[in-house]
Design brief:
Radius of gyration: 18 Å
Shape: globular
Strand order of the largest sheet: 1-4-5-6-7-8-9
Helix content: 25-40%
Largest sheet: 7 strands, parallel
Order of helices and strands: EEHEHEHEHHEHEEHEHH
Structural class: alpha/beta
Distance between the termini: 22 Å
Number of helices: 9
């Protein structure tokens, strides 16, 4: 877990899964893959296997030991709903989020069909928790708009969109059951340009629908130069966060130890 994330809309990151595979144009210049592949073959490094997908069960209990309330981006270096992540493991991650109620968890996926299905079945217990926010990535009409529909049709109590990298004008989007919208341009080498009118259209739609709007960045090869001001101001909208008490150190430790004890069994999830 990283306690000081540089991602503008979160406080921290938690990666009980590492690695992923590309499924749509938004993945083309994946920052997580670029970072992870730098360390492929470096013995003992967390990304010794580069961006190959793997479970990291030893990370599961971390949020229970982090007792200062944070907004936590879940799997900034992967996708929890990847088809190679076992359903039992997704349930285990969600049980930790449900137990660590003093945090706000932000779960983001491009695998929206699996998200919709699991939130109505094995993850129903976590779908209605107000401190767990469920979101989908949107980059264009072809791939992104269907993800919005899947999210809106899901059982999630708090739903959000990460429209980054925004690769084209999305036109009118469905915000009827959306609680938060993040918009941003692509950054780094090879970054594709984002037109200002695409951003202002989304901002105006959010304002009309009373949906909190967060403008993350213009992006580009050097995003620090382009900044994150839109029409002369910054947009830092968020959904309302619930404030829930922090469990006692004894309860937190007991929960974490129970998870780790379960994972030490011969047929535990960590052996998938």
């Amino acid at each position: 877990m990283s306690a000081n994330s540089t991602i503008e809309w979160t406080d921290a990151t938690w990666n009980p899964v590492r690695g992923c595979t590309k499924i749509s144009p938004g993945c083309k210049h994946c920052y997580a893959e670029t970072f992870a592949e730098r360390f492929r073959g470096v013995k003992g490094h967390p990304y010794e296997r580069g961006f190959d997908l793997r479970l990291v069960p030893e990370k599961l209990a971390e949020p229970l030991r982090w007792r200062t309330p944070k907004m936590i981006f879940v799997n900034s270096m992967s996708d929890l709903f990847h088809d190679q992540v076992p359903e039992e493991y997704i349930v285990a991650v969600s049980k930790v989020m449900a137990a660590a109620r003093w945090h706000t968890f932000q779960v983001l996926t491009k695998r929206s069909e699996r998200l919709q299905h699991l939130l109505s079945t094995s993850l129903r217990f976590a779908s209605t928790e107000p401190h767990i926010w469920w979101g989908v990535s949107v980059e264009n009409k072809k791939h992104g708009l269907a993800r919005i529909d899947h999210l809106c049709a899901s059982a999630a109590a708090v739903k959000f969109l990460s429209i980054e990298p925004l690769l084209e004008d999305l036109g009118s989007i469905n915000l009827e059951r959306i609680h938060w919208v993040i918009v941003g341009g692509e950054s780094g080498p090879g970054a594709r340009l984002m037109h200002p009118s695409w951003v202002t259209s989304l901002k105006d739609q959010c304002q009309s629908a009373n949906v909190p709007f967060f403008f993350k960045q213009w992006g580009g090869v050097r995003k620090s130069k382009t900044g994150r001001k839109l029409e002369g101001r910054t947009y830092n909208g968020y959904p309302r966060r619930v404030t829930l008490p922090v469990s006692s150190p004894q309860i937190c430790s007991a929960l974490a130890e129970n998870i780790e004890r379960a994972l030490s069994r011969p047929n535990a999830i960590c052996h998938f």
